[in-house]
Amino acid sequence: EKQVFCGDTVAALALLGSDPSELAHHAGDVVQLLTDPNENVRCAAADSLVALEASALAPHASGLVDCLNHRNPAVSTTAAAALLHFAKTASSEARERNHANVVCQFRSKRGDSLLHLAARFGWSEVAASIATQFRARLTDVANCDAETALHVAAREGHLDICLVLVGCGARENPRNIRGHVPLTIAKKHGHDRVVEFLASRANLETVRGGTGDAFDEAMRDNRAVLAVVWHTIPLPGRLAKGVGAFHSLLAITVGEKEESSHTYVLEKAAVDRSERIDGDDNDDADDNEGKNRPLNGVLNGVHISHWHEVANNVVNLPRAELTGEDVAGHFDATEDDKGGQGSTSTSTITMRSLRAIALATGPYDLVSSNCHHAALRVFNACAVPNRRQRTIPNLMHVKLAGTLRHIGIDVARSGQSRSFNSALPPPASPPPNVYGATTRGQALVIETSVLV
């Protein structure tokens, strides 16, 4: 399309010097003037673009993408800067003014969304803002090559953006038009850190973060707790990712001092193998080389693993953390926390005592005693009063869980099985409200989506 002011420098500069409210009506002309032969006009156009609101520029922003490959390097550089400004402004307007369409409806001629562009150019801030606001509405959008933003980030080697996308629920193995998944693309382009991250995600357990094989070591470790970090990891399954469902786990560091410390992971999960009580060593020698062998020490779904096995799968910012003076030296443990009933005693905080608290939440129950309930009780047992958490993640799902259970639909999945049980037991009673935890309206977390 012919530029309205092409070759008319005086008219072009007059337009570009207009008030921003007037410029909004000529946003398309301003974009076109980025390619004007006159350098002064191009510079004025770049300045004018910064003054435009994203909502005014949005219908013409794909023109900026067209300029990225302009034969004049100055034009492509200016277009990239203008596009970044537009992306930042658009994500900000979407958040502050509820202008979601400015972000969600943007597409370049090849079908790229703003999230694709952020992944291409390494705009970490923009990617984080857009992905956290819109999640499944944009994280899995594909362009004309059937590529999602994760494909693009993997190709460019932007590990930070890969972390953000996966943390916001992006599908990890979508295939592009050539049948390639992001991991394959990262390998082809030699981005080792991205390869390491995406490969580690392929090994993530569906019901827990760690392997649960650190029980024996943790029970022998009597060192005091130095730090506790409450992490969440996105659950697999399109529905779970779409609603932002997470699995909770605690990274617990113990030691005499930080130089000689070790970090364990404590989490509660729906187990996919027979549970074993402490001291039960009756392994079946003919259990297919141990594939179905129960984990030692697993009771009520409580698993203890090593942090180094889990770290690569933790991509979200911590929900809460305790270090230094935030960590209580002792806690008041009732006999309920030890598995019995009776008086209250003061106990040193160790992995053994924290496991006892997790066990006291009872058998795993999706509605009343899931991973978040256990994490909340254990975290608060380690915290000084003013650092205790009062709520758990995914509270908004609680009524849905109860409703589905009462009509005979079980949204929990143990291991790889999917269950739509017609005869379900009544919900378990909620665990006691201890350590300042608010358990009113016990929360559902769709631990693993079965509605996919």
Automatic annotation (TrEMBL):
InterPro entries (UniProt xref)? Ankyrin_rpt, Ankyrin_rpt-contain_sf, ARM-like, HEAT
Q: Does the keyword Membrane apply?
A: no
The record ties this protein, via PROSITE patterns, to: ANK_REP_REGION, ANK_REPEAT
**Keywords attached to this entry:** ANK repeat, Repeat
Q: Where is this region: Disordered?
A: 275-296
SUPFAM superfamilies xrefs: Ankyrin repeat (SSF48403)
| Pfam families assigned | Ank_2, HEAT
On whether Repeat is a keyword of this UniProt record, the answer is yes
ANK repeats at which positions?
145-177
Query: What is the protein named?
Result: ANK_REP_REGION domain-containing protein
Q: What organism does the UniProt record list as the source?
A: Octactis speculum
